[in-house]
Amino acid sequence: MLGIALVVFGSLAPASGCRKPLFREGDERSPYARYDEVRGQNVPEYRYNEYGRRVPNLRARLSPKD
């Protein structure tokens, strides 16, 4: 029974990553993003870490605005 479950999960898991993203790259995500953009306080959504990988820019996006 466990073997069958592993086979089913193993065959369905790769297919779950082939969907379109919920938001496109340039879409507005919320009224807050539009508010920041109008006032020139918007920050990039992603940054590159020390290893060259693209990661969400959470610290800059969640920090208090000036």
Q: Would you kindly provide a written description of the structure presented here, covering whatever features stand out?
A:
36% of the residues lie in helices and 9% in strands. A two-stranded antiparallel sheet has the order 1-2. The mean pLDDT is 82. The protein contains three helices and two strands. The protein has helices spanning 2-12, 31-38, 58-62, and strands spanning 46-48, 54-56. The radius of gyration is 19 Å and the shape is elongated. 0% of the residues are buried. The protein is α+β, with helices and mostly antiparallel strands and 66 residues long. Strand 1 (46-48) and strand 2 form a beta hairpin.
Task: Give the count of helical stretches.
Answer: 3
Mean of all residue-level pLDDT scores = 82
Overall spatial form: elongated
Please state how the strands of the largest beta sheet are arranged side by side. 1-2
Q: Point out poorly predicted stretches.
A: none
Give the H and E element order: HHEEH
What is Rg? 19 Å
User: What is the SS-derived class?
Assistant: alpha+beta
Largest beta sheet, briefly?
2 strands, antiparallel
State the total count of DSSP E strands: 2
Q: How much of the polypeptide forms β-strand, as a percent range? A: 5-15%
> Into which percent range does the helicity of residues fall?
25-40%
Spatial separation of the terminal alpha carbons:
58 Å
